[in-house]
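Protein modeling request. Please complete all fields; requests missing the sequence field cannot be processed.
Requester role: graduate student
Desired output: 3D structure, token encoding
Chains: 1
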Amino acid sequence: MDRRAFLRISGAVPVAGLAGRPPRDDWERLRKRLAGPLFRPGDPGYPEAKQGFFTMYDHRMPAAVVGAARVEDVQAAVGFAARHGLPVAARSGGHSYPGYSTVDGGIVVDLSRFSGVDVRPDGRAAIGAGARLGPIATTLAAHGRVLPAGSCETVGIAGLALGGGVGLVDRKHGLTCDHLEAARIVTADGHVRTVSRAAEPDLFWALRGGGGGNFGIVTGFTFSTVPIADVVTYKLVFPPGTQAALLAGWQEWLPGMPDELWSGVNIGAATAETNGTFLGPEARLKPLLDDLVRRVGTSPAERAARTRDHLSALRSFDDHEARPGATAARAAYVGTSRMLLRPVDDPAAVVEVLTRSPRVGTLIDSAGGAIARVGARETAFPHRSALASFQFLHGATPEDGGEAEARRALAAVRDGLGPEFGTTGYVNYLDPDMPDWARAYYGVNLPRLRAIARKYDPHGVFAFPQGLSGPRSTVHMGES
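Delivered output (480 residues):
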């Protein structure tokens, strides 16, 4: 199964908090303060407004969805939630694996109206927190620019960037968060802050890899971008039974590759393939791939390479290549992750764990290059020295055995890997059952991140089951 097909295919606990029952008059006063719509249960449009990407959370019933149209709407929603002890969560793309952006009994702040992309003459881009990767890439390409980011067109920029942001050119250009220059954020006290290296640098540091939802609601970003360039995409499909040989050869091969090469590996019960991108001519790529084939020791059953413009290259990794701008079908699947810290000693043993369940797919994204040239403590993203990230996915439809079976199968993979993976995980692939999740996601940066969360959210206004804020307490705030 290819990368995007699997991604089309989480019943986490509700957000913690002392949820109150505000009187109807209070809700109506909030409605009148907003420039955007307020959707309450029973209102026209509420069933659609509360939906995220994942169908497993459709049973959740937010007390309200605020369709924020301006920063003041976000301030009003945060202040209302704080005064009434309601949980509050932001939604950008709605792809939160455990569904944390569909908060049961609380307020969802829908940022989809913050979707602007303004490309400045110097190449910087001001991007609204509700913008999604497809429109961002299209707008930037029209100006001859690229923001290193993921390839799934419907993913929101906010969640991606705040957790780090892996993508198809990050070995050359770094993570998405490495290009963040400033962010506008509404913090728990209702204040709007514009943070950068020069202004509130601790909070700015935390926003570069410290995870979405932990410190406030970001409404906009300023990113540096890079010049656009053609990309060679490639794919090697190896015969069934070669998964261990592919993993063994790939992990030896990758560290010697130039930054211009990004490589992914898909491993499943009957899948052994690698695909990727190269920022250079096809003639230079060919001997690099020949070297990989030599290390695997088996000729691929399928081999292809093609030079594309940047947008076409991105879409070749997305299931919407034939329908640019199309809206993805909603999906039901669960996921988890580990970071590969060093080459595995026994690739066959690792593959045996990865393929125990025929419904688990493993997507491996190469790291290194520019990612590794940033120190683990320079940004909040801690896994700078990792060789690769491993993402494990399992469908959660009734045909797949349901969510409980999916989580059981994923846990067996996640917890069955060896010491090469350690207590690690990627925060953008949140798993509500991840053991020691805070250390897994934040590593050496956990103490500093918790201190910053206490500073900016001392009462846990933005608390959620895997959030860094402390226990929730009711806060009394003036109108903001």
